[in-house]
Amino acid sequence: MGGGISEWPEDERPREKMAKMGAVNLTNAELLALIIRTGDTASRKSAIDLGRDVISHFGDNLRELGSATISEITAIKGMGPAKATGIKAAFALASRFQARKLENLDRFTSPRQVFDYFHHEFRDSRKEYFLVLLLDGKNRIIRRVQISEGSLNQSIVHPREVFSPAVKESAAAVILIHNHPTGDPAPSQEDISVTRRLKEAGEIMGIRVLDHIIIGEDEFMSFVEKGLL
Q1: Residue 131's domain spans which residues?
Q2: Pfam families, from UniProt (predicted)?
């Protein structure tokens, strides 16, 4: 049964089931079937069959599926690039819905607020990202800037890269943010060294480094709260 959803028996159509009973009553496989839309002709599997295969492959762990690469999804028999990118797009949209867009002149008043905002964005990331929040004289957000992608070290997180946009935007202060893909927010010696270097550079330039917050899976570490800044 590799045809489209409209060709299935009515009691097997997740679209009709969702319209009648709501999304909460659909299984993960049925929700995936709505995204996948069509089955696989070669294996004669329906979209629900493929949805079940995907769920089974990732151990019914949606977090694992959400962080999977397109190549990892297409490794499942019957899942081509179009189906895989559709799944990735659905997870990306859900992530954007969870994380409210930072607005100009918003203000974070605690490290917890920073974590609550950013952990949805980074909790499933397999790469390390380093960001800087540029703040005005009242600690209101001017904008965010991504400085690097990859393991944190002094060569890629250079004071020039951090403070150049701060100077351009006339920022009075910055908050440093990066994630640990391992899920453990404990700072490495390199994290501490980079932070100290940036703090010293900021003091010379008259731009305060208010905090450095490391985002883990379900927890965070604030350099200020730990007395490291």
Answers
A1: 111-222
A2: RadC, UPF0758_N
Residue type, 6: S
Give the C-alpha separation, 113 to 197, whole Å: 25
Closest of 223, 127, 227 to residue 175, by C-alpha: 223
Pairwise CA distance, residues 50 & 179, whole Å:
33
Torsion (CA) 162, 163, 168, 173 in degrees, nearest 10:
110
What is the C-alpha to C-alpha distance for residues 170 and 137, in angstroms, rounded to an integer? 9
Q: What is the pTM of this model?
A: 0.61
Contact 176, 213 (CB under 8 A): yes
Distance CA 75, CA 59 (A): 15
**What 3-state DSSP class applies to 90?**
helix
Per-residue pLDDT tens for 150-203? Answer: 765 555 688 888 999 999 999 999 999 999 988 899 999 999 999 999 999 999
Which residue among 64, 98, 132 closes a domain?
98
